[in-house]
Amino acid sequence: MKKATAAKRKVHAKRPSPEESTLGIWTLHLGKSLLITLAVGLGILLTLSLFAYFYTDPNTLILPLALSGAGLTALISGIITVKIHGHSALICGLLSGCLLLCVMMLLSLFFTNDGTGYSTGISCLLHVGIPILSVIGAYWGTPRKASGKHRK
């Protein structure tokens, strides 16, 4: 009888070691969230550009719209990363914020002569604010646990 039940069992593939699976999962999740964040950031950029285009004096709106777009993209980056990965909001937010900051810094090298188009204060605000806003977004996007007590 035991031989018949043993033959019916499925043979499972060898599981990867915890180090390999954790690193692979984090890399896959961060890459996926970064691509989605860049697509959403592009949509935000196009929407804000369209808004500035129809304004009477768009030059006055460039800096506030650029900073608000970067901040909104960082918030959404944290939300997307924690939704894809599912837990560890602080680590998800910091990693997604730092990745987004690296992408923004690399892109800024192609569009200006000195690497930044902002003053020193605004540049420092961006370098500190992007990861912080991403962490805030990650905490904001963390699924809430339902409380055990229900009112009747």
Structural overview:
- The protein has 152 residues and is an all-alpha fold.
- Helices cover 74% and strands 0% of the residues.
- It contains five helices and no strands.
- The protein has helices at residues 2-8, 18-53, 62-85, 89-111, 120-141.
- Helix 2 runs antiparallel to helix 3 and helix 3 (62-85) runs parallel beside helix 5 (120-141).
- The longest helix is centred in the N-terminal third of the chain and has 36 residues, at 18-53.
Give the amount of beta strand, in percent.
under 5%
Kindly state the number of beta strands: 0
Content-based structural category: mainly alpha
Distance between the termini: 53 Å
| Global mean pLDDT | 79
For the sheet with most strands, the description reads:
none
The string of secondary-structure elements, in order, is HHHHH
Based on CA atoms alone, the radius of gyration comes out at 22 Å
Overall form? elongated
Classify the helix fraction into a percent range. over 70%
- The number of helical runs is 5
Which residues sit in consecutive blocks of at least 5 with pLDDT less than 50? none
